[in-house]
Amino acid sequence: MTGRAGLRIAGVLTLALLLGGCAATADRPVSGEREDAAEVHAELGIGYLREGEFEQAERNLRRALDYDPGYVLANIGMAAIYERKDQLDRAEEHYRRALRRDEDNPFAQTNLGALLCAREDFDEAQELFAKAIKNPDYDRRDIAHMNSGVCHADAGDAEEAERQLRRALELNPQYPRALLEMARLTYQDDRPMQTRAFLQRLDSQGVENAETLLLCYQAESALGNSRAANACAERLSRHHPDSDEMAELRRLEREG
Fold this sequence. Notes:
Elements: H1 3-10, H2 15-21, H3 32-51, H4 54-67, H5 72-84, H6 88-101, H7 106-118, H8 122-134, H9 141-154, H10 158-171, H11 176-188, H12 192-203, H13 210-222, H14 226-239, H15 244-255
Helix pairs in contact: 1-7, 2-3, 3-4, 3-5, 4-5, 5-6, 6-7, 7-8, 7-9, 8-9, 9-10, 10-11, 11-12, 11-13, 12-13, 13-14, 13-15
Pfam family, one: TPR_19
Protein name: Pilus assembly protein PilW
GO molecular function: mannosyltransferase activity
């Protein structure tokens, strides 16, 4: 599996959901002022993470863990910090610490599953996704299905990957990541008409990036629509000239 494939899974940290999902389910062995301090610093840390203020985020998350080393929200936040630093062993340690405190926490399960899949530990990753999906209180099961689908794709099981991605889209028809993964999967499976349809759904949301433009070029070329393919290639060249996708486009054009 390429590093790029791993990153597209591990990047789904769902930090915007954590404030509403983790603190309320965590077992709390500390009490009183220490409990309050851990909660305040953890929520501040997650807030800074969402704003991209990583130093402030890490400072507050560490303070939260000083007050309560097992605090679920702070451990998930610190895992996200370590993933960003590509220190995956440390990230895994914090996800597992969160799950020791709250073994049914779906956010920790989903994020740890994504990390393990990026490291090609597919079996445990899928076990964690399945647990999150079965949790009736987890209101973002679409994320777990999407991660499961990408993980199955990276493991070489395209059929199950598609099943999981379609389930994600049943739950959230506008989910951009799942739409992009379906566009990629259908193109790889020689179904460019379906690829076009998924890209059109992304375009209707205003989602256009180097990945979608390269897929657009590939799908339209496969469909014999040279005008549309050239238009996608031109936008890719203009807006993303230094991207990996632009380098791939040049290679494809050289090979004819």
